[in-house]
Amino acid sequence: MKKRAVTPLPYSIEVAGEKGKEVVFSLGGRIALENLRSLNSGVQARLQEMAPAKLTVDLSRVEYLDSAGALVLLKLQQAARTRSLDFQFANIPATVRGIMDLLDREDLAAPPLIKDRDATNLVEELGGGAKRFTEDLVQVTTFLGELLRALAYALLHPRSVRWNDVASYMKRAGMDGLPIVSLISFLLGLILAFMSSLQLKQFGANVYVAPLLAIAVVKELGPIMTAILVAGRSGSAFAAEIGTMKVNEEVDALITMGFDPIRFLALPKVLAAMVVVPLLTLYADICGIAGGLVVGVLGLDLTAYTYLQDTRTSLTILDIVPSLIKAGVFALLIAGIGCQRGFQVRGGAEAVGTATTSAVVAALFLIIVTDSAFALAFHYLGI
Questions:
Q1: Predicted local distance difference test score (pLDDT) of residue 5
Q2: Which is the CATH superfamily of the domain at 11-109?
Q3: What is the SS3 string spanning 246-288?
Q4: Is pLDDT larger for residue 232 or for residue 347?
Q5: Do residues 300 and 206 touch, judged by C-beta distance below 8 A?
């Protein structure tokens, strides 16, 4: 029976010294990527066995060292210092020292950009979430103040505004959004009129479908649905555009050239949104009423004239103006939060995606909260 030849390890570890006192690890041979796993486990096993108070790693017998091996050695040194263990390298050949000097020891000691998930309890999670929410609220409030200052400056110095860019963003946020606003608003009006008719038909109150739909669409559904659509289309686009410029250091270049990034980048977007969102809201109201008209004519045996007349008499100027005011405030929030999230981007492409998602979620949250505040205010003001 033939004996299988045992391939000798390409490296060697010799241990000298007394357990619990000064210990010397003498490494030799080839310390490279292909044998790092066994080398690291061997070093850790001997380190645990000897439990030294002082550790010296002798590298005089090392014949070959690549960057992966150098990384393991420096990680060993870092781990020893973390445990307050007296550590040093000894007898380092010139070639080995050259490879080790290629690695930046400060970067090795720096915390990672993406931290490992910590096992935290519920109280810590709630505390961390509250802290992040407070910090985010402060940042949003600060940015909103700077944006309002830029808007005031634009009113006093209209020539400083890049009106060509404002027109371009009006087309992107307004004209390009007409198809989806038309479809969603028409279907919403159709569904709301149909569901209302099912209930009102039981009491012979079909004639009230038109006023119900008109007031609901004009006062609430038109502004809020338009704002949600604009937040998903334009708010995310604003965040992605500015975030990409941050990643490519174009915003830093603007600051170097003496431009105010908020006036140069954010202001045209905000002005465009504040113009087109109220107009889109009016258009959405018309499409929603048109959807209800289809149900009224086809399903309720109403004439188009009767339906439109009931709609006209149920609405007043006090119903339309507050709707446009809400739409303007929604536009400011959508464009402002999109730009603010874009300016916050740090890192690469992943950070841009995170900022885009955050812009949409934050805009939707602010839209709902602001709409609730408007509902209470208009109720107590009698509007």
A1: 41
A2: STAS domain (3.30.750.24)
A3: HHCCHHHHHHHCCCCHHHHHHHHHHHHHHHHHHHHHHHHHHHH
A4: 232
A5: yes
Indicate the SS3 state at residue 119. coil
pLDDT digits (tens, 9 = 90+) for 31-66: 877 777 777 788 888 878 877 888 888 888 888 888
Contact present, 222 and 288 (Cβ < 8 Å) = yes
Quick: pLDDT tens for 278-300: 999 999 999 999 999 998 888 88
Retrieve residue 248's tokens: 């490519």
Q: Are 277 and 331 in contact (CB under 8 A)?
A: yes
CA–CA dist 294, 291 (Å, integer)? 5
- 189: amino acid identity, one letter: G
CB 269 within 8 A of CB 150: no
**Which residue in the block uniquely carries the two structure tokens 């602001």?**
370
Reported as a pLDDT band with limits 50, 70 and 90, residue 333 is very high
Edge-to-edge strands of the sheet including 54-65? 11-17, 22-31, 54-65, 86-90
Q: Taking the alpha carbons of 44, 46, 50, 55 in that order, is the dihedral positive or negative?
A: negative
Pairing of strands 54-65, 22-31: parallel
Q: What percent of the chain has pLDDT over 90?
A: 29
- The domain ranges of the chain are 11-109, 137-381
